[in-house]
Amino acid sequence: MPPTLASVVRNTALHLTVLAGTDHLERQVRWVHTSELDDPTPFLEGGELLLTTGIKLGKTASRLQAYVHRLADAGVVGLGLGVGLSHTEVPQALVEAAAQRGLPLLRVPEATPFIAISKAVSAALAAEQYEAVTTSFEAQEELTRAALGKDGTTAVVRRLAARLGGWAALYDGSGALSAVAPDWAARRAGRLAAEVDRLRRRPAPSSAALQGRSPGIDTADEDFVVVQSLGADRRPRGFLAVGTEDRITPTERYVLNAAVALLTLTLERSRELRQAEERMGAALLHMVLAGEVATARQVSAGVFGGLPEGEARVMVAGAGTGPEAAETLSELGDRAEQAGGRVGERLLVSREDGPHGPRLLVLAQDNGAAHRACLGAVEEHEGLALGVSAPTSLEDAGTAYAQAERALAVALRGGRRSVDHEEVGAGSLLPLLGEEAVTAFAEGLLRPLREHDRTARGDLVASLRAWLSRHGQWDAAAADLGVHRHTLRYRMRRVEELLGRSLDDTDVRMELWLALRAGEE
């Protein structure tokens, strides 16, 4: 740490005496400045121990008080007055003003040159910098050895916590806690979920600093917390949080930065290796979809540890054609892989460019971690849509892929976040009638009847609805309307005239019925 006023005063070779501000000697001295100006503040940055003989200060209480106020407002940490020249002793008014502002005031005897004080502080600052460099180098070696060991990232987190004298936690790209040290810090690390989630939505690298009693930290804790995202290509691969009792010192900041660099390298891996793994996974997925399951099993056993077990689902995600679509889908793929990796669940992922924009294909265990992660992700991202197949065996994955594509098409047309094949295959067509194209068709088809009803007698739209709902039974439909069946027959002939279509045509009846229902959706 930088030298403090207390350490300067304790230097017996300087023979300094504290006359005021004894309660503030813990202030750190970042430089020593000598000035005989009545107002030296334009030349100060804050954190200085200011030395003066007081030649231009005068002896009136008002001038001395104004001088002290200027120094305190400028962030001066202490004032040293050299006696024996313009002042035989430190003026009492100066002592009282310094005490009032809490500014440490030091008496510098005539035998102590100002240069001696400057040398003492400079030596202490140099020692602090040397210690910071040495400590940082040792910590970097220690963290590097930990990263190369069998425990990898967990060992780095453990060593970092010990170096900082606090706690450290590592989260994966989805924000889930993956390592923490010491063990008792798991609860504190868990409370940072909201802060990690905010960083997850920002390009990496980014960071946030939280002080005790800040949002995300229990009010009983007084930790100083730093959260840092880990990633080299703007997409966070993970997050590191550290908590300490006091603010992190510059030396500790070097140690933290070294840990961030090592963890980033570990999580990122080489770009070529990652791309090769993605290509291999995509190739295996397409082998399964093509029905070559036996070959895919044989290949994946030595590379991916095997294929998904039990019933699986095929999921196809789309995010439009905007510039951020590919990045959004890539993040979705990362979340699925991370969710599956945490529980040892096998899955296959393929990122592709299609005629309607980029697509993400996922083959994962039915209702498994990756399946749930995909469903959760689409609820968080505006514009992201997901089509999900029915549960299937790997041998029928090709059929499941077609199901997922149809489900995605329904989701995109209807503005929905996700659609299961069960909704498309076993549900009703009526929810699909609310789409704009169908609504426009219905309005155009029924417009002549609606215009007639507004200007002439006879409710043709209601009559047509009743007649179609009764499957063309005249008596039953007329009874529903409360009219004679001859009146209903007249109205239906009028409908045919206005539409230019025959109600004897089954296709015409079907279109009219769907048009009427579309107007109700």
Automatic annotation (TrEMBL):
Gene3D superfamilies: PucR C-terminal helix-turn-helix domain (1.10.10.2840). It comes from Kitasatospora arboriphila. Residues 8-125 form the Purine catabolism PurC-like domain. Residues 460-518 form the PucR C-terminal helix-turn-helix domain. Pfam families: HTH_30, PucR. InterPro entries: CdaR-like_regulators, PucR_C-HTH_dom, PucR_C-HTH_sf, PucR_dom. This is PucR family transcriptional regulator. Transmembrane segments: none annotated. It comes from the Bacteria.
